[in-house]
Amino acid sequence: MRVLMINKFLYPNGGSETYIFKLGEYLKSQGHEVQYFGMEHEGRCVGNNVNAYTTDMNFHGGSKLSKLTYPFKTIYSSEARKKIRLVLDDFKPDVCHLNNFNYQLTPSIILEIVKWRKQTGNKCKIIYTAHDYQLVCPNHMLRNPNTHTNCTKCINGHFVNCVKNKCIHNSFAKSVIGALEGYVWKKTGVYKNIDHIICISNFMKSVIDKNKMLSDRTDVLHNFVDKIEFEDVLTSKKEYVLYFGRYSEEKGIATLLNVCRRLPNIPFIFAGNGPMENEINSISNIKNLGFKNGQDLMKLIREARFSVCTSEWFEPFGLSIAESILLKTPVLGSNIGGIPEVIDDGVTGELFGAGNKNELKSKIEKLWLDKEKIQKLTDNCGNVKFNSISEYCHRLMNYYCSN
Known about the structure:
Number of domains: 2
Largest sheet: 6 strands, parallel
Distance between the termini: 15 Å
Radius of gyration: 22 Å
Shape: globular
Strand content: 5-15%
Order of helices and strands: EHEHHEHEEEHHEHEEHEHEHEHEEHHH
CATH architecture of the largest domain: 3-Layer(aba) Sandwich
Strand order of the largest sheet: 2-1-3-4-7-8
Number of helices: 14
Number of strands: 14
Structural class: alpha/beta
């Protein structure tokens, strides 16, 4: 089977890139042909046989002319249509697997795939994996960044709310473009051409299903979680609570810091980076180690008494939670978005009300003092299994090959 992976970034940049690289490698190992389409970039590490990519769009820089034309190119891209057509004609994919494409590649590529199918008679499937809420929310997060509250006003296509609240970078102009993009593609009905929308959690499906144009094609397929290869030389936990991830408002960092101040006798370790780093460094019982990955991060996770995930936005899945559990470290997580689908409450960790400082404080305190309970949760974590990439791909093939 020939699979064309489509994603705006073709270099390591975030979760969707990790997904397409690992999925592509596995599909190749199973005898399938995989090529990639997206933007050109100096860090690009995958590609296609005809070297056809769109021009790199850097919204935070570029010439004055490029800044003037960007608003139009984020809605519709003739370049993206021309370039993807070169790949379609050469590769002749059986599946076009869309990932993050809005604003840089634009939904205009879907129009070209549909046109190519009609002109050639190719029955190529169009599959989309929803890594965020971009089909129903112009800022992709279902969150008003100015009030720091979650918001679902745009879900049914009422994108004017994006403008009212200046939801994109607190900019009226950018929010107008985001809303206009939503209205243009709602009017054309372009997303009706997607054969299957894969949602990474039941919660994400419940959100997307509220949009009647999309609800008849959604399916849930929880993300695969890599088997974690870790040199297990550790025999005991150490005395700290771990937070790892981005230091930002939507991750509930302000709530967590409030609790850390009120629990001065409990040591916390933070591993990550982000705009709230100065606030973190001002608290005496927090040790900030900065960004960590690989074996260094795994060691931190494995040695923690337990980890915390305090997200206050609608976290789609919670891959970091799954990684913690696989490393036999229970997780105290906020009861929001897809997080409750990863934590088995009372078995592999506990849940608390997102943003509830008092409940978070109480649960951290109780878990810290109750070593017997922590040991039980830790033992339970050792029995948990998430989707392996082979299991994931077995189910994915059902969508690739469906009639």
